[in-house]
Amino acid sequence: xxxxxxxxxxxxxxxxxxxxxxxxxxxxxxxxxxxxxxxxxxxxxxxxxxxxxxxxxxxxxxxxxxxxxxxxxxxxxxxxxxxxxxxxxxxxxxxxxxxxxxxxxxxxxxxxxxxxxxxxxxxxxxxxxxxxxxxxxxxxxxxxxxxxxxxxxxxxxxxxxxxxxxxxxxxxxxxxxxxxxxxxxxxxxxxxxxxxxxxxxxxxxxxxxxxxxxxxxxxxxxxxxxxxxxxxxxxxxxxxxxxxxxxxxxxxxxxxxxxxxxxxxxxxx
Length: 269
What we know:
3 domains
């Protein structure tokens, strides 16, 4: 996948509360994928309308094919062209990343092997279905292309979570850090504000994690093992609302670690 020139224009705007937001202009983006087995001998129109429904209906996709926004192996084709095994399907679309906070990304540690940064909230780690340029990896590459253009993601935080993120600069350091996480030689620690007070100062959570999204409910539940420790208790709203600050730590020493499927030595785009 790649974006096409011109690159998006970056601007800083203010929302209603006065917070600074990083905003991108719309840009053209090209998806390039090899033809899958289930697509073979089907027309390009049929495949695109059924597999990429977000692009539009039958009439919209037909126009995209005829105008060259959908191509096969970089060539113009007719809507009734039948895909073959060696083909590559390319679609060009207009994308517009959602706004994110324009908070600076502070580097808290750096060596020849890794860089550790304080990720602000609202920023996803790497490209996904909604974001390409408004991501931590992309912004770091913009700020320092010489050092940060080949960063490898070792672990992730949710977009709305602020916290420490460690990124590897080389494939060898990525492999060793991934191994450390898989083998339980490293811990991830979270601090959370909780509505209410826990019954005990320290609890062990061992319940399995169920998938609530319909698209993921067919997947098996995941084992979990988390140590939750209360650090502070208080009240808000003139004492009406109890709140707590808790520390959550994966308890590797008393439960097998959960496999980390997103940890990879390969470069993340």
